[in-house]
Design a protein that fits this description.
Elements: H1 31-46, H2 52-59, H3 63-76, E1 79-81, E2 88-90, H4 92-104, H5 107-122, E3 125-132, E4 135-142, H6 164-172, H7 175-189, H8 200-212, E5 215-217, E6 225-233, E7 239-248, H9 259-274
Antiparallel strand pairs: 1-2, 3-4, 3-7, 5-6, 6-7
Helix pairs in contact: 1-2, 2-3, 5-9, 6-8
Length: 283
């Protein structure tokens, strides 16, 4: 349930701070908009048509108070009402607004904020990698207080199957895309075709990544260095980028359920949420 606001006055304006105080002056808010947003938020969270009584309860207000907001939202196209059931759901204007917001989102910008915070909280190196022309490519690297000496920098292209970052990409990207990139990588490095994708061991590793939602590597990408990777998804459920945590073997065990692992999962989920991704509900 959406937490109700402290004031029920739809026209109440939040007061400015006392000019004599040293704190910055607070901006005035229109209380009626904040109250009305509880109705839209309830419809957004439920993702299904709702009867007036249920919708009002979820928004934390009586039906008589919720109804005028719904009338105004319907006039603006933000909400529509079924002529058969009388239930309410988000309208075409809400869809247009959501699509416009998604088009303005930049995955790297959103992830960079989280990566910087995560590097500080975990005191470990955090790399962001996107899918580039040559494969998984590092586009940001946040170092801890005492940087780890690894052969990794912005612009580094990660091997598709010989790094955990690459395997996470392989686990979530379309198979055709992965096969094509694997063939190109094998041809550049070794020469000739590659049958690695169909190897039972590789398929098992990719399945484990999908099952746990993260990838773990010991002494990868180099001896004495452990890595833990988490995928970030966009609003369509497609892989947007991979967030990788890197640390020395003696201090960082790269356990998925460790405090560091939970931090990585939390921040990766934060980015996915900002990009509009809604995780599937589990029983």
């Amino acid at each position: 349930m959406v937490k109700p606001l402290s004031s029920d006055d739809p026209l109440d304006l939040a007061p400015d701070a006392d000019p004599g105080l040293s704190e910055p002056k607070r901006q005035r808010r229109i209380q009626s908009i904040e109250v009305g947003m509880r109705v839209l938020q309830a419809l957004t969270e439920q993702q299904r048509p709702l009867a007036l009584k249920e919708l009002a309860a979820l928004a934390g207000m009586p039906p008589g108070k919720a109804h005028p907001y719904l009338v105004s939202f319907m006039a603006a196209g933000m909400v529509k009402q079924s002529p058969l059931t009388g239930h309410y759901e988000l309208g075409p204007a809400a869809l247009q607004m959501g699509l416009a917001a998604l088009q303005q989102l930049d995955p790297l910008t959103e992830a960079s904020q989280e990566a910087a915070v995560l590097a500080t909280r975990a005191d470990l190196s955090i790399a962001l990698a996107v899918w580039g022309q040559l494969g998984p490519t590092v586009v940001r690297l946040d170092e801890p207080r005492y940087p780890l000496h690894v052969n990794l920098r912005v612009g580094t292209v990660m091997s598709l199957f010989n790094t955990i970052t690459g395997r996470v990409f392989a686990a979530y990207l379309p198979e055709k895309m992965v096969r094509t990139m694997l063939e190109d990588e094998h041809r550049r490095v070794v020469g000739g075709p590659s049958a690695d994708f169909d190897a039972p061991e590789i398929q098992r590793l990719l399945a484990e990544i999908r099952a746990s939602g993260m990838g773990r590597g010991l002494s990868m990408p180099q001896p004495g260095v452990n890595t833990l990777c988490a995928p970030v998804f966009d609003a369509a459920g497609h892989l947007a980028l991979v967030m990788t945590m890197i640390g020395p073997h003696g201090e960082f065990g790269a356990e998925i359920d460790s405090p560091a692992g939970r931090l990585l999962r939390e921040h990766a989920a934060n980015v996915s949420r900002r990009l509009g991704y809604v995780a599937a509900q589990t029983d």
